[in-house]
Amino acid sequence: MNIKEEMSNPIFIVGLRRSGTTLLNLMLNAHSKIHITYESGFLPKFYNHKEKYGDLSHIKNQRKLLEEFYSQQRNWSKDDYPPINDVISNIKETTMDGIFSSMYELIANKYGKSRWGDKTPDFVEYLEVLSKMFPDAQFIHIIRDCRDIILSRQSLKWFRHDIRIIAKEWSNSIKLGEEFSKTIDSGRYKAIKYEDIICEPRTQLKNVCDFLGEEFEEQMLEFYKESKKIVPSVESDRHQNTDKGLIKSNSEKWRHKMNSTDICIVESIIGNKLNELDYKIVNTDSNWSKILVRNLYYDFINLMDRLKGKKV
């Protein structure tokens, strides 16, 4: 395969954590031409400090950039890193985006794929930066009902206890996507709902493939067969169902499992946006004394986290 000729528009999957980004990552990776790398995490940080690396036409600076990037990877195994000398030899443009493109191309080529991408949920906060780095990139933004995101996060060790913060993050991530979409060509940004993917996977994947300019392939529906090769073992506790196929009932669980007072608090913060996206509002708990006590509880949790030096 001549990777210098066949590589095309990079793909970035973004969205709030626990919104279904890993699911789409696996589905696209099952395509014969596409390899989406699992959460590199630091591209915008390096771009925003690119002056630190000086003139990138010099090999020593290219090497310094790649060595620092590799050293900060938590989600990649050593087998994922292309040898730095190979990356440098494959560089077509001696810019930061050119160097990282070379790296991603070699990763994709290792899997016999001709197109690369990256799935890092937090990149939703850096859409403009990534667009500057990769002017031909395409972005897929996964959106999921915030109440189900909260419910999903509550079982995780890193769960941020204050659901009010999560609700605001959810609303802000959607706002960022909407504002970004107005600044670029329509063929570069696509928002898709997690609930639609699990309800109509074939239809939604065909739509995604049309957006990407690729042919839909049936094996994309069998993404779970290769999931363990994509999701790092250190992340397996967060993604326990990725090798089991689609769980079509994995939506609106909040209706039966979420505290009714929490539902009311979340809906009071982002109810308008939930309605706008056709996520039904229930707002059943009108006991304001319970709501007051619950808000005080979250204030107390935040105070304790601050005293412990944790980020709130």
How would you characterize the overall build of this protein?
By secondary structure, the chain is an alpha/beta fold. The longest helix is centred in the last third of the chain and has 20 residues, at 288-307. It has a single domain (3-250), classed as Rossmann fold (3-Layer(aba) Sandwich). Helix 5 (84-90) packs across helix 6 (96-110). It is built from 15 helices and 5 strands. The protein has a 5-stranded parallel sheet, sandwiched between helices. 35% of the residues are buried.
The CATH class designation is: Alpha Beta
Shape, please?
globular
| CATH architecture group name | 3-Layer(aba) Sandwich
Order of strands across the main sheet: 2-3-1-4-5
Overall tally of structural domains: 1
- Strand tally is 5
* Helix segment tally: 15
Largest sheet: 5 strands, parallel
What's the helix-strand series?
HEHEHHHHEHEHHEHHHHHH
* SSE class: alpha/beta
Name the CATH superfamily assignment. P-loop containing nucleotide triphosphate hydrolases
* Euclidean distance between termini CA atoms: 48 Å
Summary tags:
312 residues, alpha/beta, Rossmann fold, 5-stranded parallel β-sheet, 15 helices, 48% helix, 8% strand, globular, disordered N terminus
